[in-house]
Amino acid sequence: MHKKMRACSDREKEEKAIFILQNAHRLFEQEDYAAITMARIAKESGVAKGTVFNYYPTKEELFLKLAGTYFQQLFDNLTFEIEERINKNTPENLTEILVKVLLNNPSFLKIIPLLNSIIEKNVSVGNLKIFKSQLLENIILGGTLLEKYFPLIPQNQGPRFLIWVYGILIGFINLADPEENAKEIIEQNQMELFHFSLKNEITNILLLIIKGF
Fold first, then answer.
1. What is the number of other CB atoms lying within 10 angstroms of the CB of residue 159?
2. What is the pLDDT along the chain (213 residues), one digit of tens a residue?
3. At the fourth CATH level, which superfamily is domain 1-56?
């Protein structure tokens, strides 16, 4: 009897944690990371601020968990897109798949530049290890799937290729969204080279890399 009641309680806790996370995601869709507080997340979730802290000790811990859901969604989408186009293994098709998957979630694009600079520096070692381990597993699975369906990717290089893609994406996101002062200087001085389309540039560089294989 006691075990059954405890299981129900654990399930309710898990559902509450997911519910809070979903509300944090909705806020993040609309606002910058810096503008979101744990108090606002609590209000959005209809719970006391202390309740949010019971599940996520810090804002960074909460957003690390949120980042994990974004990455999982990305790799699920990558698997789906690859298996939908198993007979189209050209560089152009692989580039199209990657660009579609990478740019599909605006919240993912917002959070990844924050991971190394802010979020990962302010979470527990245990939770960071869980996050990194899950990410590594997905990268290996995704990279192996690329090798299987796209012979142009050298054997055992699929995971490393995905790491390259991730690094390029972070850099390009920063170039495509400079600080306000930089934007103003670029516009006023007609510095066309600094006008940066994330989709166009990521498409061009990935196609170059894939053809280089």
1. 17
2. 444 434 457 888 889 999 999 999 999 999 999 999 999 999 999 999 999 999 999 999 999 999 999 999 999 999 999 988 777 789 999 999 999 999 999 999 999 999 999 999 999 999 999 999 999 999 999 999 999 999 889 999 999 999 999 999 999 998 887 777 877 787 778 787 777 789 999 999 999 999 988
3. Homeodomain-like (1.10.10.60)
Residue 98 tokens, joined = 């990657």
Which segments of the chain belong to CATH 1.10.10.60? 1-56
According to DSSP, residue 87 is labeled T
Backbone conformation region of residue 156, classed left if phi is above 0, alpha if psi is from -120 to 50, else beta: left
What is the spatial distance between Cα 208 and Cα 213, in angstroms, rounded to a whole number? Answer: 9
pTM comes to 0.88
Query: In whole angstroms, what is the distance from residue 69 CA to residue 27 CA?
Result: 15
- Closest CA relative to residue 175, chosen from 205, 149, 145: 205
CATH homologous superfamily of domain 58-212?
Tetracycline Repressor, domain 2 (1.10.357.10)
Judge contact between 101 and 73, C-beta under 8 A.
no
In Å, the largest CA–CA distance within the chain is 73
Phi, psi angle pair for 145, to nearest 5°: -65, -40
Q: What is the DSSP string of 44-72?
A: HHTS-HHHHHHH-SSHHHHHHHHHHHHHH
